[in-house]
Design goal:
The chain is α+β, with helices and mostly antiparallel strands and about 550 residues long. It has 15 helices and 14 strands. The longest helix has about 35 residues, at about 305-335. InterPro entries: Adhesion_GPCR (IPR051587), GAIN_B (IPR057244), GAIN_dom_sf (IPR046338), GPCR_2-like_7TM (IPR017981), GPCR_2_secretin-like (IPR000832), GPCR_2_secretin-like_CS (IPR017983), GPS (IPR000203).
Length: about 550
């Protein structure tokens, strides 16, 4: 049996692992991100305490199981331990490895410890060799150590067998594609002391529900199961980033066109409300895409404040885009249904800004306040809302509600326009503007609704490769859709843009013509040629040229 001190320490560890991970551990990790890694390191160090002088020893608790052996020069055999409980967990060190450690008759103590709940408390940090796949912990945590006469041994070949868990909440919610096990160990030095999983020095071989790991060093080991293999495709990432760049350029072009055509197209209150909402939709999507593109180069982690900020602003601006679409739909509904109740710019503009920006700001801030302390705000592989614990619903639920409301408003508006008697409705220029708003909403609402409907499906459930590519295409090219359907297909905008371009080209051409035309020469005296040194005599009455002498005599005959 281990010492009484060690038994007491392990009993405390087992009780601490029963603490509510959301209420206590998440709060502690929010204050000290490395608390779980430090806790594991303390457990690893305690296993190196003095053990019995010979023989085998073990100690079992609800969340901790310790097994070990003491080998002398005359009692060397293979070290092989099988732990109780599920899933399967085995550790094996060959006799040849132990023989190299036994020197001068000293004993060698090998200790292994299975930890049942600690793996779930460690942050989801993955070293560079693991790539950007999404992982879930697929087995228990096994910590092994060797103590010899020279102190702790850090490098020795150990073979382990990990049985796979039947299912985890994360895997059941997020698994898509083939699950691939990966043998890993916890490296306390990664991520600025916070720790992370690494696969260096380990070989993996999987047989059905068991994974065999062979590693060349001693520390805490486990098995990670990779999921979402479809989303890790190089071409999917390339298509997404290319589309976002195209969307950003399209939105910049769209805002530039609105700037050039603004004075020509805004001629009444309805057109002002229309283009004000379109400009804000384009601006919100531009900012969201910019943050989204920048976040692809950040390390996903709750401790990476820039990643947290990128997630917040991406969430906020995407929501703002949909809320401005809602504002546009309500304005269309009001102008067609409440014909005799006109809206004033001074009162509507502040209200529209409040709905368009303040409402999404409140939702985005609430998502951070609720899920960030629980370390459930950010995905493990991207700076975006976590799709496994409810954070993603702070985006998907408002979007779904807005899309449904917009569809209902569009239905009412279409029925209103199809009525035989519409004499009480708006006339002329205002009616054309309202129809333009209707056309844009009829196209953009289904596109954006379908886009994020697919997005929620791919983030929260098992989905096909086709759905991933459809979401990538639709999401990436939203800015192009706004440029085409909200700007270029608007005849008033096209005419105003062409008029502005023609005016600018005419002005440039006139300026160039003036600059290329030689300036007229101003003669110093009447009838004197501008070619200096070659005066030309003026013509006489009959067209004959006067001689210089005659000219001089005439000048001389003038009275003084």
């Amino acid at each position: 049996m281990p010492s009484l001190c060690l038994q007491t320490f392990l009993a405390v560890v087992s009780q601490m692992l029963d603490f509510d991970p959301q209420a206590l551990w998440a709060k502690a990790q929010a204050d000290v991100p490395s608390v779980a890694s430090t806790f594991l390191q303390a457990i690893e160090n305690i296993t190196r305490w003095p053990a019995p002088r010979d023989g085998n020893f073990s100690f079992t608790l609800p969340n901790v199981e310790l097994q070990g052996s003491v080998f002398g020069p005359d009692s060397l055999t293979d070290y092989s331990k099988t732990f109780h409980g599920q899933p399967l967990l085995q550790a094996h060190i060959s006799q040849e490895v132990l023989e190299q450690l036994v020197q001068l008759g000293a004993n060698v103590t090998v200790t292994s410890m299975a930890l049942k709940k600690l793996g779930g408390l460690l942050p989801a940090n993955y070293g560079p060799a693991l790539g950007r796949s999404t992982y879930v912990l697929g087995s228990l945590l096994l910590s092994s150590s060797i103590m010899s006469s020279n102190g702790s041994v850090s490098r020795a070949e150990i073979a382990m067998a990990f049985g796979h868990r039947n299912a985890t909440e994360e895997a059941a919610a997020a698994a898509s594609g083939e699950e691939r096990p990966q043998c890993v160990f916890w490296d306390h030095g990664l991520f600025q002391g916070e720790g992370g999983w690494s696969s260096q020095g380990c070989q993996t071989s999987s047989t059905g529900t068991t994974t065999k790991c062979t590693c060349q060093h001693l520390t805490s080991f486990s098995v990670l199961m990779s999921i979402h293999s479809v989303a890790d495709s190089f071409w999917l990432d390339f298509l997404s980033q290319f589309g976002v760049c195209a969307s950003i350029l399209a939105l910049i072009l769209c805002l530039g066109i609105y700037y050039l055509a603004w004075q020509s197209v805004v001629r009444n209150k309805i057109s002002y409300f229309r283009y004000m909402t379109l400009v804000n939709i384009a601006l919100a999507l531009l900012m969201a895409n910019t943050w989204f593109l920048g976040s692809s180069w950040m390390t996903p982690s709750h401790e990476n404040k820039l990643c947290v900020a990128a997630t917040f602003f991406t969430h906020f601006f995407y929501l703002a885009m949909f809320f401005w679409m809602l504002v546009q739909a309500f304005m269309l509904f009001h102008h067609l249904v409440f014909v005799f109740h006109q809206l004033a710019k001074a009162s509507v503009t502040p209200l529209a800004v409040t709905v368009g920006y303040l409402c999404p700001l409140i939702i985005a801030a609430a998502a951070v306040a609720v899920y960030y302390p629980k370390r459930g705000y950010i995905q493990a592989t991207a700076c975006w809302l976590n799709g496994h614990n409810g954070a993603i619903y702070a985006f998907s639920v408002p979007v779904l509600v807005i899309v449904l409301v917009n569809v209902l408003i569009l239905f009412v508006v279409v029925m209103k326009l199809m009525r035989p008697s519409v004499s009480e409705g708006p006339k002329g220029e205002e009616r054309k503007t309202l129809l333009s708003i209707l056309k844009a909403l009829l196209i953009l609402t289904p596109i954006f609704g379908l886009t994020w409907g697919l997005g929620v499906i791919t983030m929260t459930s098992k989905s096909s490769e086709l759905s991933h590519y459809m979401f990538a295409v639709l999401n990436s090219f939203q800015g192009v859709f706004i440029l085409v359907f909200g700007c270029l297909m608007d005849k008033k905008v096209r005419d105003a843009l062409l008029k502005r371009i023609h005016k600018e080209l005419t002005s440039v051409a006139t300026t160039a013509q003036v600059s290329l035309t030689p300036a007229p020469c101003m003669p110093a005296r009447p009838r004197v040629s501008c070619f200096v040194g070659h005066p030309t005599a003026p013509l006489g009455k009959k067209g004959a040229a006067a001689t210089p002498d005659a000219a001089g005599s005439r000048q001389g005959s003038r009275p003084g």
